[in-house]
Amino acid sequence: MEQHLHSGDARHDAAAPSYLAAVLAHAFDLHRAGQLDQAAPLYQEALAIDPRQAEALHYFGVLQHQRGAHRAAADLLDQALELEPADAVCWSNRGLVAAALGQHDEAERCYWQALQLHPKFADARNNLGVTLQAQGELEGAVRQYREAIALQPLSVDAHLNLGTALAKLERYDEALEYYEQALALDPYSAEAHFSAGNALNAKGDSAAAIARFRRAIELRPGFANAHVNLGSAIGKLGNYAEAEQQYRYAVALKPNPTNLVCLGGSLGAQGRLDEEEVFYRRALEIDPGYVDAHQNLAWLLLKRGDYAQGWAEFAKRWRPLDYAAIAVEGVPEWHGEPLDGRRILLVGDQGFGDQLQFLRFARVLEQLGAEVDVCVREPLVPLAERVPGVHRAWSGKAEGRYDFWAPLMSVPSCIGTEVATIPADVPYLFADEAKVQAWRERVASVAGSRRKVGLVWAGSPTFGNDRYRSMHFADLAPLGELKDIAWFSLQKGPAEAQLVEAPEAFRPYDFSAELHDFTETAALVMNLDQVIAVDTGVAHLTGALGKPVWIMLPANSDWRWLERRSDSPWYPAARLFRQGVLGDWKPLVKSVVEALRQGKKQ
């Protein structure tokens, strides 16, 4: 957001001594030219001559603000306002200083005072909008920016600020209109291209966003934030190598925790685990509480099998908004206190697969003496209520009378789970027997005596690494070489449509339209001999049901599958197949085909 420091028009008292007037005039000229170090001693000299010279106090205060000495600036501007309480420009500049000190209420009061004195003061309107926006009052900010533009139609900053406020209100098309108007006023505004890129990215138009970020960097080569956002937009398309390069530029320009974590993450996404850790550690040296660094470091440590340190880092992963969304008001969070005779609520966090994987810990806490309820996403409730150790399962706002609550995925950090102590008794999920029976005849009628294998080749497109953890159905074509196997599609979501182009020689039976929820999928899985899947919720579901599951993993696989292992301590019936090169599924699928052939021979 752009705020205007209003210089005003310096007034000179005709009766003032000529030397003082000359000193001030010289100070103003140097100040306007940006020569702050040369102007400062002249203001001091003027104030030595006349400590009550209001303009000297005012503009020396402005200079101190520009230097970052905001408290000294506030004191000088307050003295000026005592002498000239009707100076609207001074009030507006005092508001800027208050905002710089984080005193938003005081800043707002100063801007309103300026506007009472000078209702058509466009800069004060703009600055008031910035302060309102900083306090989350977006609609009020929009009104002030619109008024500023009406008063000063050529203000690039007001157009940019209005666009930013509209973007925060998710009114991206309107925001883009104002960014374009800003560019019509100033075609070389790197900030306008950058902001337009952010709005386009939020709309999902990655290609257009990337073009805007590149243009912003052309116009301002040292624009660190544009390098970061360009890296993120490119990374979203799966080009982690170029994303890494952009993050490296950003770190060179501005080695702050955000940029360091982004660079580390781009290395991890390429499977370069030994290189990424240093950047998370550097970020935490700068800001020990930086949650994204803790989160990424946790994933890295857990993937290495260092659960002692990994879970400790994982416990520090919360952003305030994320935490507030699941916290149970009035109930203390559990951190490992004795549970005998206590009631605890486990609240599901993250995705379906995560919650399916961690529901196993309900039985562990029950064995510690707790009565365990779970609050999970609504589609999981029918399965969760059958999990051993769960007293009651429900969905909705986490609340109720409990002794403790805990995020489901925080339980391992509270009980000191190691790789060797993962509770892996399966099954711990159970399908509805009536639904299992209902599917039995249907599966048998199409499969006969053939081996029955379920397939899942893609996950949710909204998942950050989906481009690499998912494949296209055509990548599985070599499976069609195998005879005497009846294939069943368990695929849900947009990738279902890929079956339309499937060849007759390899066209799975597709009951996906009837898989309305996880209970139906579980019942169908119980009628199959095994499931072959990419890393999705169905893989977790199958493993937790105790059914054999082969999981096809990208080279940058998730932390839970550890490194280089072909088995999983989380699911005894799982077998892992790993890519050698990121994005190349062919060798992996060939290994799956060979493993299926070997299974037939045994």
Task: Give an account of the 3D structure.
The chain has 28 helices and 10 strands. The relative contact order is 0.05. The chain is elongated, with a radius of gyration of 31 Å. The longest helix is centred in the last third of the chain and has 16 residues, at 586-601. Helix 2 packs antiparallel against helix 3 (54-67) and helix 10 packs antiparallel against helix 11 (190-203). By secondary structure, it is an alpha/beta fold. It has helices at residues 18-32, 36-49, 54-67, 70-83, 88-100, 104-117, 122-134, 138-151, 156-168, 172-185, 190-203, 206-219, 224-236, 240-253, 257-269, 273-286, 291-303, 307-314, 320-326, 352-358, 361-367, 381-384, 411-415, 433-447, 466-469, 518-525, 537-544, 586-601; strands spanning 343-347, 371-375, 390-394, 404-407, 451-456, 485-489, 509-510, 530-534, 549-553, 574-578. The model is unreliable at 8-16 (pLDDT under 50). Among the domains are: 323-421, Rossmann fold, CATH 3.40.50; 433-601, 3-Layer(aba) Sandwich (Rossmann fold), CATH 3.40.50.2000. The chain has a 6-stranded parallel sheet, sandwiched between helices. The protein has a 4-stranded parallel sheet with strand order 3-2-1-4.
List the keywords.
Tfp pilus assembly protein PilF; Rossmann fold; Glyco_trans_9; 602 residues; TPR-like_helical_dom_sf; glycosyltransferase activity; 53% helix; 6-stranded parallel sheet; 28 helices; alpha/beta; 4-stranded parallel sheet
